[in-house]
Amino acid sequence: MAALIARLLRSPTTDQGTFGRLQFGGRSLFTTELPWRNNRQQRSCIPAGVYQVALVNSPRFGRVYGVANVPGRSHVLIHAANLGGDIDMGWQTQLQGCIAPAVRLGAMQIPATATQPSRMQAAGLVSRPALTEFMAWANGNPFTLEITES
Question: With contact defined as beta carbons under 8 Å apart, do 90 and 116 qualify?
Answer without folding.
Answer: yes
